[in-house]
Structures are given as C-alpha cells and as structure tokens.
Amino acid sequence: MNKKTQQEAPPVIEIDLEKCKGCAICVEFCPTDVLALENGVAVVVNIDACNRCQFCDHRCPDFAITVK
Predict the structure, then answer these.
(1) pLDDT attached to residue 1
(2) Does residue 56 sit in helix, strand or coil?
(3) Using CA atoms, how far apart are residues 26 and 3, in angstroms rounded to an integer?
(4) How far apart, in whole angstroms, are the C-alpha atoms of residue 3 and residue 27?
(5) For the chain, what is the largest distance between any 2 Cα atoms, rounded to a whole number of angstroms?
(6) pLDDT tens digit string along 10-28?
(7) Which of 17, 40, 53, 65 is positioned for an S-S bond with 22, CB 3.0–4.6 A?
C-alpha cells in the first residue's frame, strides 16, 4: 500500500499594525524566536522557525496577531 504524504503549508503570521501597541508579550512567549519588536511594533523575523504553537496569537491582549 502506497500512501502519498501531504506537505503542510508553511505558517503565515499576520500582524495588524494598527492594533499592535508594542507590548512585546508575543515576543516573550514565542518559544522559537519568530517575532521581534521593531520601531515599537511586533514583526516576523524568522518565519521558518514557527511551529504554529499560537502562543503569540493567544497571548496578544489586543488581538493583533493571527497565525494561519
């Protein structure tokens, strides 16, 4: 029996810069250092390290981050 393995799409992290207040909670909770603060807002700096844990998404007090 031969099964095809389906590759998972790479993660996408959307940050609503109008909602982000730069509190850095997402940066602190990210276990793989995907996010950083630049110019007072969160930015993705290493998407390849994202494991879709969604700690950033769930901890953001302003609902500025969405992980897909």
Answers:
(1) 46
(2) helix
(3) 38
(4) 39
(5) 54
(6) 999 999 999 999 999 999 9
(7) 40
Q: What are phi and psi of 29, to 5 degrees?
A: -85, -15
Q: Three-state secondary structure along 33-47? A: CCEEEECCEEEECCH
Q: What is the pTM of this model?
A: 0.85
Whose tokens are 């990210």? That residue is 30
d(CA 67, CA 56) in angstroms, rounded, equals: 8
Handedness of CA 44, 64, 57, 5 (dihedral sign): negative
13 exposure class (CB count in 10 Å sphere: 0-12, 13-18, 19+): buried
